[in-house]
């Protein structure tokens, strides 16, 4: 088999978007994926992402967004954030910045299937149900061996194989790891009251609860993050008891609730890879950074990694003399963005965790101040947009 320009490990949203952009730029790309082609069904999928305008613009440039089924897109025009234990709340509305929406809730598997099919149509080679078991990377080229015994060579290897990246592990890249001591419970629910295209989040003493609007006006996806002890209590509840506690936690903001899916729980951890460029190995997306889901920025960080990397490889001829400098600059810029977001999420988490009266008062005042001071509020909205 002829050498490839890029070998991409991982066919998730980030890996496939990278592969499509590189193939469109005239490079020869192959994607290695341990799983099969994703296929979504008629029922809403559990895992969702809140995509900011910046991510949508990238997907539009790739031609992917235009292929998303409208019936599976949940644009949201407003955000409501409040503290359960105080008077503090802040509300955002897209009209305040003369926009049609703030972002869109997308089911991960739906977007992954769209990207997979687009990648194949664009000429990207995809090898499914296998994985990299050995890799050799130096200053000149990369060579990988797959579980099926096949060997591939290329100019660059891209690790986009998620938070548990085997490529990153095989390269022995240093990793900063932090266990939040929390778990997130996710589910899809039907609601008595329409969600009105508003993303809601309430900060509880044990962790944040997000209710994200789906395409159906009476369906939301929830992400309930809670300290481990509380999360374990929630996971053992019957469906009816879980719904009862969910209604209390959400201030009954959407009326009667009913589970439309099973509930799933996953642990919350922060990871940060300290080296994203090592010879001809590049690391991006969750393989490079994973953060707390309370602001829904994980996927947006990954798509920003992709957008900036594609700008470097925008032409089919690799500028070998300048690429190392450009990649170092890409690494510095993207690492700075990831560290800033990790720090912001930790500040949010700690700031809303205290139950002391002075802490509640402080949170209430901070949210009210942000809501009433227009420049500050608009700055927060632009951050949510990815601007």
From TrEMBL:
Gene Ontology molecular-function annotations: 2-polyprenylphenol 6-hydroxylase activity; FAD binding
Annotated pathway: Cofactor biosynthesis; ubiquinone biosynthesis
Assigned keywords, A-Z: FAD, Flavoprotein, Monooxygenase, Oxidoreductase
Named cofactor requirement(s): FAD
Highest taxon of source: Bacteria
Pfam families: FAD_binding_3
Annotated FAD-binding domain residues: 7-338
InterPro entries per the UniProt record, alphabetical: FAD-bd, FAD/NAD-bd_sf, Ubi_Hdrlase_CS, UbiH/COQ6, UbiH/COQ6_monooxygenase
GO biological process, one term: ubiquinone biosynthetic process
Family under the similarity heading: Belongs to the UbiH/COQ6 family.
NCBIfam families reported for this sequence: Ubi-OHases
Name this polypeptide is given: 2-octaprenyl-3-methyl-6-methoxy-1,4-benzoquinol hydroxylase
The organism of origin for this protein: Pseudidiomarina maritima
């Amino acid at each position: 088999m002829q050498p490839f320009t890029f070998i991409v490990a991982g066919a998730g949203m980030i890996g496939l978007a990278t592969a499509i952009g590189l193939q469109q730029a005239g490079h020869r790309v192959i994607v290695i994926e341990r799983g099969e082609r994703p296929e979504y069904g008629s029922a809403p999928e559990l895992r969702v992402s809140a995509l900011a305008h910046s991510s949508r613009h990238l997907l539009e440039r790739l031609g992917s967004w235009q292929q998303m089924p409208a019936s599976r897109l949940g644009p949201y025009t407003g955000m409501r954030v409040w503290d359960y234990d105080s008077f503090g709340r802040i509300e955002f509305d897209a009209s305040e910045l003369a926009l049609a929406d703030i972002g869109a809730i997308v089911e991960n598997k739906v977007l992954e299937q769209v990207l997979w099919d687009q990648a194949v149509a664009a000429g990207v080679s995809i090898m499914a149900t296998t994985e990299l078991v050995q890799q050799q990377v130096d200053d000149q080229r990369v060579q990988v061996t797959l579980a099926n015994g096949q060997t591939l060579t290329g100019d660059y290897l891209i690790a986009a194989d998620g938070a548990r990246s085997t490529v990153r592990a095989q390269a022995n890249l240093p990793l900063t790891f932090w266990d939040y001591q929390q778990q997130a419970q996710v589910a899809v629910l039907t609601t008595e009251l329409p969600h009105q295209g508003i993303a809601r989040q309430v900060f509880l003493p044990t962790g944040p609860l997000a209710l994200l609007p789906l395409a159906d006006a009476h369906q939301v996806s929830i992400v309930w993050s809670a300290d481990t002890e509380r999360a374990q209590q929630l996971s053992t509840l019957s469906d009816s008891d879980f719904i009862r506690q969910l209604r209390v936690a959400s201030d009954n903001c959407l009326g009667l609730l009913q589970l439309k899916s099973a509930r799933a729980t996953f642990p919350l951890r922060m990871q940060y890879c300290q080296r994203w460029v090592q010879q001809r190995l590049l690391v991006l997306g969750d393989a490079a950074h994973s953060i707390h889901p309370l602001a829904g920025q994980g996927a947006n960080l990954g798509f920003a990694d992709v957008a900036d990397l594609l700008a470097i490889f925008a032409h089919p001829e690799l500028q070998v003399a300048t690429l190392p400098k450009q990649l170092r600059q890409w690494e510095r810029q993207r690492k700075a963005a990831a560290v800033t977001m990790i720090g912001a999420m930790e500040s949010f988490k700690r700031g809303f965790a205290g139950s002391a009266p002075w802490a509640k008062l402080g949170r209430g005042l901070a949210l009210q101040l942000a809501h009433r001071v227009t420049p500050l509020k608009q700055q927060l909205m632009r951050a949510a947009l990815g601007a």
